[in-house]
């Protein structure tokens, strides 16, 4: 199939690369000419395991092309995917102006039938708006169908999620559009769920909100574990082995972050309010997530008493491991709060350093060259992201380097018993606190 993808950000680029890898001819379009030039020169703007190799392979095979012209993309493809950002506004609503603009631009160059597919995460009813807009600006009166095809890829394992999806959701009104979409996804050999457009849009918001709810649920349980002496990991194992519940997304920690969950939960709350059916359960999910960070900061303050002038090492800047993405990262929020209390913070992250250096909110932090170096002379170590690398650091050496060996593990990455045996004071989430005698 000939496919174009408008928007070469995270979703657009990964999707385009994987579509090309299964044999489609793909045009990745972006209005950022510098980005397109870089991609043409073989430079990949984001870190995602395996992505660079797939892009290079498919560019060499002439199946993957980059363009800054929507017209070229639309002319050369049967199916046009929209994968532009839908940023959050201060009131929780989603800014759909990029979607609207791209819809107008597509309409302006539409000369014959195309399927226009919305892949960006959008509130229910957006598909209807896209169809209205294209109809209004469709100068040549060309036929078209609008489809909703939400993505479910996770940063850090996006290639695998895309290549081996649990399901493909196609929300469409016309059988012809469904048939074409099935051809796009045939090589992936995954279950395909065909729905109306609104249901497909809702599936995306409902899925992400449910996962966020699972995280807040286990974090609320963690708070109860802390005051009752229970162990949240054991509770999660105990309930997670029930196949109706499942163990995934029951890892207690300092809360969810990233560019999706916080935004999608807020957007779902907003659209539900607008539709006159307030979704208060999700408000509680948000509240627990915010409280989790505060509880962790309280743990740090209670143990250190005063943060002012304390040397604190922080491992982790990204919102989760295996990505360089620091957007809405809980780690960044924590660092920013500790800096505002005049702590001396030294940070390290395997992939997130470059992007974090650009953030004004943590401008006062020092950047170390390694996880170990960050702990030199530290009075406390905070683990904010669960990179595997951190679990393999020589902890005896960490202890030697620290002035006072106190560890706050916000991701339950380390083993409390081992930490106790090594002589650390060790605090984690929803588990026994280890205080050496
Ligand atoms: C999420 C969804 O998992 C994807 O299915 C979806 O496609 C994507 O959003 C999107 O809408 O584009 P992502 O934001 O990449 O993917 O990250 P997740 O792996 O879901 O993690 C989100 C946050 O939850 C991270 O901060 C992570 O540390 C936290 N988390 C996750 C927990 O605190 N506990 C868990 O058990 C799992």
How would you describe this protein?
Helix 13 links the parallel strand 9 and strand 10. The longest helix is centred in the middle third of the chain and has 32 residues. Helix content is 45%, strand content 14%. Helix 9 crosses helix 11. With 437 residues, it is an alpha/beta fold. The strands form three sheets. The chain has a six-stranded parallel sheet, sandwiched between helices. It has a six-stranded parallel sheet with strand order 11-10-9-12-13-14. The protein has a two-stranded parallel sheet with strand order 7-8. Uridine-5'-diphosphate-glucuronic acid binds next to helix 9. The site of uridine-5'-diphosphate-glucuronic acid has 20 residues, from helix 9.
Distance between the termini: 68 Å
Q: Name the ligand types.
A: uridine-5'-diphosphate-glucuronic acid
Q: Helix segment count?
A: 18
**What class would the helix/strand composition place it in?**
alpha/beta
- Number of E-state strands: 14
| Regions with little confidence, pLDDT below 50 for 5+ residues | none
Strand order of the largest sheet: 3-2-1-4-5-6
Largest sheet composition: 6 strands, parallel
> Rounded to an integer, what's the Rg over CA atoms?
24 Å
Strand residue percentage: 5-15%
Shape: elongated
What is the helix fraction of residues, given as a range? 40-55%
Chain-averaged pLDDT: 96
